[in-house]
Amino acid sequence: MPPNFLIISGSSGSGKTIALQVLEDLGFYCIDNLPPSLIPDMASRMMGSGASSQKCAVSIDSRNRDFLGELSSHFDSLRSMNIDFRVIFLDADDQMLLQRYSETRRKHPLSDQHTSLSEAIAKERKILEPIADLAHRHLDTSRTTPHELRSQIRDFAASSDDSSLTLLFQSFGFKYGSPSDADFVFDVRCLPNPHWDPELKPLTGLDAPVHAYLSAQPKCMDMFEHIRDFIAHWLPSFIDDNRNYMTVAIGCTGGKHRSVFLSNLLRKHFSEDEQSEQLAILTQVRHRELSL
Fold first, then answer.
1. pTM, 2 dp
2. Nearest Cα to Cα of residue 189 among 265, 251, 115
3. Could you give the CA distance from residue 233 to residue 115 in angstroms, rounded to a whole number?
4. What contacts 33, CB < 8 A, 6 or more positions away?
5. Please, are residues 166 and 8 in contact by the beta-carbon 8 Å criterion?
6. Which of 50, 81, 109, 170 maximizes the CB count within 10 A of its CB?
7. pLDDT digits (tens, 9 = 90+) for 252-265
8. What domains appear along the chain, each with residue ranges and CATH number?
């Protein structure tokens, strides 16, 4: 069964409101800005007394700064009540947060006549460190559209606890910056580039001609095998360390050909691999630079 108690946190402007709206649409009872000290009692009331099918989501932000240091003990209380909970932490880089506040003309909750917006963002990161360290999943929304964020939250909420680990392969383009929420980043810019073929340039790694071109390149298949073997070798160790999620980022220059091709190939392999089945691994793929 998917987790039925979710905790959403993150930087102001990173998308927490969108996340709560998605969860509400999915049937979660949502509470915004709940003091962390009230989490165990609220969870006990909502999830107990025969209401185990009730799905709940709460948002915690920097406005409750005085309570964040006690989060670990509150989470221990949830575990002692056998409540299956997950924590999602959303963030974005400083430049994107500044841009979003500039565009919306919103006031940052920590800014005042003595604190600039940049200073408020830095101060908030420090305040949120306790919950960021305890989060099950980090999502970098710097280059994520609202539509893509909604999709990621839906995927997270639907993930089954029958899976010991969710393995996400994410393609991206180095020219747009490396993803900050990746556990491993592989640079595949050394591989033959379909971009320089006029017929392949307008296509992507999802198209058959590009797939055929890259499949015929020995270096591409060598890279696939090396990344595949590295991940396969270390997956059991990460599972033994109680990891629930792992993001493997594959980057090429523009994030449209080589990285997409390899991410799909890796996802296909691990979704069909006997070892993955034995380890109960759930695989996903996401292409950051493609509007899908």
1. 0.70
2. 251
3. 49
4. 59, 60, 61, 63, 64
5. no
6. 170
7. 999 999 999 999 99
8. 5-158 (3.40.50.300), 165-287 (no CATH)
